[in-house]
Predict the structure.
Amino acid sequence: MALEGKNAPVFALEGSDGNTHTLSQYSGKTVVIYFYPKDSTSGCTKEACGFRDNYAELQQRGAVVLGVSKDGIPSHTKFISSFSLPFVLLSDPDTSMMRAYEAFGEKIMYGKKTTGTIRSTVIIGPDGIVIKQWAKVAKAEQHPDQVLEYLRG
């Protein structure tokens, strides 16, 4: 994958917790960043709930989980509240972070080419290097288990 083995792109985005989140504040930690199209939609909800259900073990393995979409903070807050999500969601309204992480661009949706958020995930090692990239997540509901399997080694 294009980002694996490279320095993770820097970012500074507003989080659902009211704080600005930057890559540098996670130095020394393993960070799972998953990019998803829209709060409270079917596939995105299944994926978020999968990360929620795996959250305790992800934390035990030293991983921080961040979800990123174009949705604003009010939408993120409602999504978190509706599904008891224990992790921060970042708002990327101008798609600058998603573009840097190759998570925004041309994709096929319902058989048609469109431009939008590409469901994808990166794992960043404690040294700031991307150690794993899923450039296109095919099955949202199964993906959190794939991430956990990878971290189990």
Remarks:
- The first helix runs from residue 42 to 53.
- The longest strand covers residues 63-69.
- The mean pLDDT is 96.
- Residues 12-152 form a domain with the Glutaredoxin fold (CATH 3.40.30.10).
